[in-house]
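Researcher: Next sequence.
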Amino acid sequence: MNVTWLLAWRNLWRHSRRTWLTVAAMVFCNILLVFLISLQLGSYTMMIDNTLGTFSGHIQVQHEGYLDQQKMRQTVPAVTELAQTLRGQDGIAAAAARGIAFALAASEERSFGIQIVGVEPAHEPGVSTFPGLVKQGRFLSPDAGANSDEIVIGSVLAENLKVGLGDELTFLGSGRDGSFAAAVATVVGIIDTGFDEIDRSIAEVPLAWFQQVFAMGDHGHSVVIRVIDFDAVPQQVSRLEEDLAGSAELVVLDWDALQPGLRQAIASDMTSAWFMYGVLIILVAFSVLNTQLMSVLERTREFGVMLALGMGPGKLARLVGLETLMMSTIGLAIGVLLGGLLVWYLSLAGFYFPGMEEMGKRFNLPERMYPEFSLLAIMWGPVTVFLFALLAALYPALRLFGLQPVAAMRAA
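Model: Next structure:
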């Protein structure tokens, strides 16, 4: 082994207590960063799944321009057949066809303009959490057909219209062909998501009934898809685009296009979190700086002798750098090992805090959070600490270039 490495290792343990305290600070910081970053990335996964699982899904097949314009005639032909075909493909967990129309809903006392969504009752639970949030009554019958005049609505909409289970709502709107659409539906369920904006707008009916009332034929407005592996969304989008290449008017939209604000919210949250992480990292870097600076000052006379014997200041600076490298490597290794074991356990058992179970039942969400166990989550924080620790050693090392042999040997 090179003598410089031996000297660096020996010098590192001259004051073992100080070295271990600095290493302990690095280990604590690394474990904390591994846990927090893994938990944060895991929460993003849960947030994405919950947000997309509410209504939009991971992927949608739509008519080109429908996302922005939402025109009644921008439809997907043979929508139920397309959904059935997609359900049989690898990597797709669920697919459901939908149709959307705007109409005037009237009860005996009030009337409101609402958005009516035609869904496949048997397959909608696979792409949306709304069916699991029915607090009164039930969701649409799985075998509901063109003659099933059932409707489920949001709790706020029910209050606004002054209706309850068993009451009838009359709808007036325009069909796909421009004809006059009118129908009566019976409320069979009331959904309560806990969010007034959503509960004010939810109104779902069987797709077959929707197609008949609004003169849709076999058309719909979208096929909503949920994939098995979220990371495989780009590959699934590419494959679907190839499969639908013959349908020039259809487009495949991923979750980022459907929910453009979601990625921005994640980026904003990550940026704010790194301000806190940065404070921890800087504190550890100053701890390393203090340790190495004290080490250099204590050995001023020794360094003066070495300079007088012909060793250049560059070699001395490299010696200090090697000491920091060894100390940082120990902190990195122990921190990653312990932090990785902690995250591995929590990724299997889940992370729970008081009140989360009640919140999960209230909003149909998971009762536990699962940190992300991945190389990025485990190494991101500790590697940053490692680099900042090496950076902190620059000042003590650069001081050696201004050291004068005679003055250094005379130092007390």
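Model: Residues 3-51+262-409 form one domain. The beta strands are 59-63, 92-106, 111-119, 134-137, 150-154, 168-174, 180-191, 203-206, 222-227, 250-254.
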